[in-house]
Amino acid sequence: MSIEFLVTSLIVVVSPGTGVLYTLATGLSRGTRASIVAAFGCTLGIVPHMAAAITGLAAVLHTSAVAFEILRYMGVAYLLYMAWRTLREHGALTVDESVAPSSALRTILRGVLLNVLNPKLSIFFFAFLPQFVGPSDPAVLWRMLELSAVFMLMTFAVFVVYGAFAAFMRRMVISNPGVLVWMRRTFAGAFAVLGLQLALAARP
């Protein structure tokens, strides 16, 4: 496994996106354990895209305008929904210990949906993984599976760090309602901006 793959993967994973945003929001609102669950959900959401890239289905998505547009606007709608939830009194960023927390399953499903409903991920992996597999490699499939597993482990680890940091800052947010209002608006705006970026993204 090349150092180039590890460095490139780390840059991709660390870069802020919907998964990072969701994990941070969960860590701030419900603590370390919930943020780990959110990180797990976001990591699971990568699996369909990697599977599509490995099996070649991403090529269909890449060439089919209809398939790409349907998935893209489903993703846009979900990101806008997350922005709306965040602005609500008991939305995605609510630091209120008197409110019953969401179940682990619901937290995981939200994380999965955020990544599944992003068609750019399939196209990214379709272009990304083959760059690190030699054309003469006798076990191309296993090599891509290995790279995918490493990418997912790296994603989970980095997201856990993000979530733990957010959870560490949680007490400060709880003790200062003004900070909570500012954070809620910031996260809602970030979800909305990501949704807008996805809506305006041109099909490759």
Walkthrough of the structure:
The protein is an all-alpha fold and 204 residues long. The protein has one domain (17-200). Helices cover 78% and strands 0% of the residues. The chain has ten helices and no strands. Helix 1 (3-14) crosses helix 8, helix 4 (57-63) crosses helix 7 and helix 5 (65-87) packs antiparallel against helix 10. The longest helix is centred in the C-terminal third of the chain and has 29 residues, at 140-168. It is globular. 40% of the residues are buried.
Give a concise summary.
The protein is mostly helical and 204 residues long. Helices cover 78% and strands 0% of the residues. It has helices at 3-14, 18-44, 47-55, 57-63, 65-87, 104-116, 119-128, 140-168, 170-174, 177-200.
The tally of beta strands, per DSSP, is 0
Mean pLDDT metric: 76
Pattern of helices and strands: HHHHHHHHHH
Radius of gyration: 18 Å
Percent of residues in helices comes to over 70%
Shape: globular
- Give the biggest beta sheet: none
Strand content: under 5%
| Number of structural units classed as domains | 1
Number of separate helices: 10
Distance between the termini: 28 Å
Q: How is this fold's topology laid out?
A:
Layout (H helix, E strand, L loop, with lengths): L2 H12 L3 H27 L2 H9 L1 H7 L1 H23 L16 H13 L2 H10 L11 H29 L1 H5 L2 H24 L4
Helix pairs in contact: 1-8, 2-6, 2-8, 3-7, 4-7, 5-10
